[in-house]
Amino acid sequence: MICRLMFFCCLLSLPSMAATYDLPLEGSNLIGRTQFHKVEAGETMAQIAKKYDVGFLSLMAANKGVDPFLPDEDYVLTIPSQIILPHSVREGIVINLAELRLYYFERDKVHVFPVGIGRIGRDTPEMETTISQKRPNPTWTPTDTIRKEYLAKGITLPPVVPAGPENPLGEYALRLAYGAGDYLIHGTNKDFGIGLRVSSGCIRMEPQDIEWLFNQVALGVKVTIIDEPVKMSLEPDRSVFIEAHEPLTRSDGSKKRLVIPDELTWWLDEFGYSDAKARAVIMTQNGVPTEVVPPSFGEPI
Fold first, then answer.
1. Average pLDDT over every residue of 53-59
2. I need a labelling partner for 160 at 20 to 30 A (CA). Which of 147, 148, 221, 287 fits?
3. Angstrom distance (rounded) from CA 293 to CA 158
């Protein structure tokens, strides 16, 4: 399936675009709104994802069972354009590995980008760090391990890959201060990989997305990388929403357990609500915020 997806993206060359939202009112974590789209003759899910500025894989997750290459005409797709903000400080760059999204917080706005992350065996680590270097037209110095991997495929890499169309870092790179500075947020010279686990641990962005971000951020901007497959929001009207994503498989084969957040368990117990809706959302893992407690307090459900 992944191979078919990569081939399809190569043919279309339809990059996912960022979406910009107003930050919610104090006490709220919901941004955007769910939209719906009736498939027209000849439309593909890649084209529809581009139209609504959502990631292609996010659209697939929100519409499980739909053929991504030939969706049925007149079928109504759910557009995952409503999002629960991650449980993190709303400052600088926040990357949630589980949902393959990067958030950039800017005054009263938040910009949301689809990203590619490290593959199994090259997991992108969780971290709190800053941007230590901005590099336009970066060169690439492959590590010994990467050179061996390429050599096994019959490709001999030079000690340094110069800037240009053959450079996998693309035209812009932001170096993170974490560890020895081996991790970057960078572009790509490929037409696929965004929204997938394909990198050697770095954060990969579409060329036009990294160009925009590169020109917005300054040295020292805070970068927080988390792995939060289940997000919850208790809204000001006392309604509760949950958004669940498929957990990442780590290098040791483990996955984060998808459980109802403790805060919600306490809330449900206190007011006598069933946890059936919350459990269903977690099992579905469609990445769409779902209301599990209504805004008004009626009879327990």
1. 77
2. 221
3. 57
Q: Which two tokens stand for residue 9?
A: 């993206």
The whole-angstrom separation of Cα 219 and Cα 72 is 47
Map tokens 């999204």 to a residue. 101
The closest alpha carbon to 115, from 216, 206, 227, belongs to: 206
Q: Please indicate whether residue 186 is annotated as part of the active site.
A: yes
Contacts of 215 (CB under 8 A, 6+ apart): none
- Of residues 114 and 193, more confidence is placed in 114
Provide the 3-class DSSP secondary structure of residue 30: strand
Give the pLDDT confidence score for residue 242 in this predicted structure. 95
Q: Catalytic: which of 37, 111, 202, 245? A: 202
Residue 202 annotated among the catalytic residues of the structure:
yes
Q: Given the residues 9, 37, 111, 186, select the one marked as catalytic.
A: 186
Report, as an integer, the average pLDDT of 40-65. Answer: 84
Cα–Cα distance for residue pair 284/224, rounded to 1 Å: 27
